[in-house]
Amino acid sequence: MSNLLEVRDLHVTFVTPDRTVHAVNGVSFDLKRGETLGILGESGSGKSVTLRSILRLHPEHRTRWGGSIRLEGDEVLDMGPRALSDLRGQRVAMIFQEPATAFDPVFTIGQQIAETVRRHTGKSDREAWKRAHDLLEMVRIPSPAQRLKAYPHEMSGGMRQRAMIALALSCNPTLLLADEPTTALDATVQIQVLLLIRELQREFDLGVIFVTHDIGVAVEVSDRIGVMYAGKLVELAPVERMVDAPQHPYSRGLLASTVHDGMRGQRLEAIPGAPPDLGEVPGGCSFAPRCKSVRPDCLSAVPALRDVEAAHAVRCVLAA
Amino acid sequence: MDTLAPVADRGGPAQPLLLATGLRKHFPIPGGLFGRATRVVRAVDDLTLSVAKGETLGVVGESGCGKSTVARLLIRLLQPDRGTMVLDGDPVDEPHGITVNELRRNVQMVFQDSYASLNPRLTIAETLAFAPKAHGLPANEARDRVRDLLSKVGLDPASYADRYPHELSGGQRQRVNIARALALRPRLIILDEAVSALDKSVEAQVLNMLVDLKKELGLTYVFISHDLNVVQYLSDRVLVMYLGKIVELGPVEAIYGDPQHPYTRALLSARPSMDPRRRTKEAPIQGDPPNPINPPSGCRFRTRCPYAEDICAKVEPLLADTGAQSVACHMRVPGSGHSKAVAA
């Protein structure tokens, strides 16, 4: 099967008069239809920047791009305003961490979903409202007819996030981008939203890229997990492989330092130090300064992302 | 005499370090005619808890359950509407008791937002020396104390003392906040989501440090968090809150190993699975936590509880001892009128 999305050697650099930040430094991955890729990383790892690049949401005049992002064969980085508008409205949808700021506070949920449907599919007013109603039903919002008339602030956090998912799916996208959509939610609500996303993904055969800092969340939704560090993918593997046998010292450290059941009384294996400043592109492995297995050749050249076995790639000189 | 020597123990090991009885805090919402409050957020309602010397008491619950209000009441950043507090045998803010200032020599707090809780115009050294100086420590001794505090939290005094908060990473800033909380040599530290904003690799560093500091300085912690895994890792006893009430309280092994309250069970099984072969199939409960404004009558969890019956709407369940832990649920009380009530 051909790929829905192909990202090749993506570079994203933000340039301001004071400072240059190399946020993404050569990210490559593929995504098939119906597949969920979890991108795991800490703040500043470039996971959200990578995700937003797929919709070209970064300010054009301050962003320098390199590499290629192909959606069903079309190059996103070459798109003009009209193609971009179609891309954002219909082909690719995105949901965010904070649904309160993703909605316009002065329009009702119904107005906002119906407008999107009219704008991108050319449906009549009546049809668009009918579609909005069906969408709220689909994301399991109780009494949808009433909820269409609600303003965003009148809904709870979990309901707003469901409404945002409804808005995102309103024009039948093929690719759903999720940027920490459950991070701001309470534990009992988070699991409901995760299950909903998993279910809708299957029902509509969506490709999903799910960015999160929470390993448990990534494990719940992903088929494959990519771990990012300092603007690069350091490991990419099927979810079982990533949990059972992570190869990159950073992935291992991240899994070992995440507190879970049965770790009481044990000392946590913390990774020393902090992620590097991305003002300069490092000449060697970005993780080397924090790595306990560091060798001289780690610093001389950037290690390549190599396959250690089928579908499992690692960016480390030690990986075999 | 050292003006800022560690506070001596008074009541002995059996006396709780901090005992709060019947704490209540309601926030009226103005908005009625002539600004009269017509609605009330019942953030904390008749809450009684004790913190034993040397333990870590974990407090868990979802947003709006009142856990941060509890923290602010315990250190008197908020004045309770009702209720009393006793610190190591001394009543707080009462005649013949200790003052709020004395309470705060003994009890300190660390907040979630490491940046907002530091003064951006003071260097780290100035921030750390502020409270000791205010309590009468001479400048040269304060300098020594700053050095000592920074090395305790793993920051090299030579390179960090003269920096400003914006020059530090989130993890380093939170270390400074912990150092500041230690500056007056308190006995109890309230950690309100203190590691929640940190990245996992940094969180682990700070958790290890908290464990070490507790041992080294003989501290007692109240650890408030929404992260059940971290609470399990750190706590000796755990208190579960729902809409301003305690629903379950007990030793960590009992709460995590044999949870009794339906809410505790739901909360624990809502944790994402770390095993891709055993993913969560079904959400344990539906809906969001209700608004703490005008909470449900009777048991506040009944609107989301799969076992709710008439009795749950009529009578409020009290926290009752069930062996290992205390639970506020009609199903755990013999003869409560609930059809699933345990036998006497």
Describe the protein.
- The complex is a heterodimer of chains A (320) and B (344).
- Chain A contains twelve helices and twelve strands.
- By secondary structure, chain A is an alpha/beta fold.
- The model of chain A has no long low-confidence stretch (mean pLDDT 92).
- The model of chain B has no long low-confidence stretch (mean pLDDT 92).
Topology diagram in text:
The complex is a heterodimer of chains A (320) and B (344).
Chain A (H helix, E strand, L loop, with lengths): L4 E11 L4 E12 L4 E5 L6 H7 L9 E9 L2 E2 L5 H11 E4 L3 H4 L6 H13 L3 H14 L5 H4 L9 H12 L6 E5 L7 H17 L3 E6 L2 H7 L2 E6 L2 E7 H6 L4 H9 L38 H5 L5 E4 L2 E3 L6
Parallel strand pairs in A: 3-8, 3-9, 6-7, 7-8
Antiparallel strand pairs in A: 1-2, 1-4, 4-5, 9-10, 10-12, 11-12
Chain B lengths: L17 E13 L6 E15 L4 E5 L6 H8 L7 E6 L2 E2 L8 H7 E4 L13 H11 L4 H14 L4 H4 L9 H13 L5 E5 L7 H18 L2 E5 L3 H7 L2 E6 L2 E7 H6 L4 H8 L40 H5 L5 E2 L4 E2 L17
Parallel strand pairs in B: 3-8, 3-9, 6-7, 7-8
Antiparallel strand pairs in B: 1-2, 1-4, 4-5, 9-10, 10-12, 11-12
How does the major sheet of chain A shape up?
8 strands, mixed
* CA(first)-CA(last) distance of chain B: 59 Å
Show unreliable segments of chain B.
Answer: none
Radius of gyration based on Cα positions of chain B: 22 Å
- What's the Cα radius of gyration of chain A? 21 Å
CATH topological fold name of chain A: Rossmann fold
What are the salient characteristics of this protein?
heterodimer, A: alpha/beta, Rossmann fold, 8-stranded mixed β-sheet, 4-stranded antiparallel β-sheet, 23% strand, B: 344 residues, alpha/beta, 12 strands, globular
